[in-house]
Design a protein that fits this description.
By secondary structure, this protein is mainly alpha-helical. It is built from eight helices and no strands. It has helices at residues 20-27, 31-49, 63-70, 77-85, 87-107, 111-128, 140-154, 161-171.
Length: 172
């Protein structure tokens, strides 16, 4: 079987980046980020879903109490007010969203959409729960927001359901 390679202006075969270990490193560069964010979001979502105190409208450790505590220091108090209309529903939505985003990210299934969901969750948490952090970099939600952006832009090009589906479409 003979392979024909197209060489780009930079001298790289098939436009896939540099050959050898540098090429492999470049192709797999986002994989540790995908694994970290995916595992973290699945864990965070399951942690919330299994914590009866978190999913309550009031009481120590509840989503309702957390929202009431950050309402006046939030950058978007209207979003906190919206959550306070149904704290339990909001808690379930955040938890299930985190699980869905984490699974999508780990599997690389609809990876850009999953990453956009993760970025949206992180943005909403930064603007509400960790907005009052001073200095701002003490709030971890901003760092998570920034971590999601490369995955929003690049998706999951390797070791992913998206890549397998794309290869299958190309083979047809």
């Amino acid at each position: 079987m003979t392979h024909t390679y197209r060489t780009t202006a930079g001298g790289h075969r098939n436009g896939g980046g540099p050959p050898g270990w540098r090429g492999s490193a470049a192709r797999y560069a986002l994989l540790p980020l995908r694994i970290f964010l995916g595992v973290t979001f699945v864990y965070a979502g399951l942690d919330k879903l299994t914590d009866d105190r978190f999913l309550a409208a009031s009481g120590t450790g509840s989503i309702g109490e957390t929202m009431r505590a950050v309402r006046d220091s939030s950058a978007v108090p209207w979003l906190v007010d919206l959550a306070l209309k149904n704290p339990e529903g909001f808690g379930y939505a955040i938890a299930l969203g985190e699980v869905a985003v984490g699974i999508g990210t780990l599997l690389g299934l609809l990876a850009r959409l999953a990453a956009a969901g993760g970025a949206l969750i992180s943005l909403s948490l930064w603007l509400t729960v960790s907005w009052q952090s001073d200095p701002y970099y003490y709030g971890n939600d901003l760092a998570y927001l920034m971590a999601w952006l490369p995955l929003v832009l690049a998706g999951a090009p390797v070791l992913s359901a998206d890549a397998a589906l794309a290869a299958r479409r190309r083979a047809r």
